[in-house]
Design brief:
There is one protein chain. This protein is an all-alpha fold. It has one domain. It is built from nine helices and no strands. The chain is elongated and about 55 Å long. The two termini are 23 Å apart.
């Protein structure tokens, strides 16, 4: 099957997720900067989630750029990833409106953890279809960023009940790890041209 429909559908879903998140932002009642102070947790939650959705969009693009074709398993694995990402606006709103409380921060981490697992599954399904000698398999290698991200999410979920700001710091650290797109795939694509 052609991969273009998967990419177009995924791009559309991710655009809708970002749109939903921004529509959740409520304007202050007063027209002074002090009115923004209570919204700081909401704005920070939005910023972090926007960055995460951007990271997934960017890496999804690279992933499918290295993918030759898709099959039913790839379609379902992609939908699995999109399901977890579609929950980000809910967790973002609850975390921000809850002023970075333990339970919303832990739920946010669970959703990030499951999105990370879903991305790993998608990657694995594509590699299984295209074979161990595929461009994607050689580009992924050990995938230390992917594995360390899942470990940090797991730690942050538990730490949310100790101090939710530590968890937010860990989520931010993972985002910083992924801000630069995964160059392994780009490098392999250039080498194979």
């Amino acid at each position: 099957m052609n991969k273009n429909r998967v990419e177009a559908f995924s791009d559309g879903v991710l655009a809708i997720i970002i749109t939903i998140m921004v529509l959740e932002l409520k304007r202050p009642e007063r027209a002074d900067l002090a009115a923004l102070r209570p919204l700081i947790p909401v704005l920070l939650s939005y910023l972090l989630s926007f960055i995460y959705i951007g990271i997934y969009w960017n890496n999804h693009h690279h992933l499918f750029h290295a993918t030759k074709r898709v099959n039913g398993a790839v379609l379902w694995a992609n939908l699995h990833l999109l399901f977890w990402l579609s929950l980000v606006p809910f967790a973002t709103a609850w975390m921000g409106e809850g002023h970075i409380a333990s339970e919303p921060v832990a739920l946010y981490g669970c959703i990030l953890q499951m999105a990370g697992v879903a991305y790993y599954i998608l990657q694995s399904v594509i590699i299984a279809d295209q074979g161990p000698d595929s461009l994607l398999r050689s580009a992924i290698g050990f995938d230390w960023k992917g594995k360390s991200s899942l470990i940090l999410y797991f730690a942050a979920i538990g730490l949310a009940f100790v101090n939710p700001w530590i968890s937010v710091g860990l989520y931010t650290a993972v985002a910083f790890m992924w801000l630069i797109p995964d160059t392994r795939i780009e490098r392999r694509l250039r080498e194979n041209v």
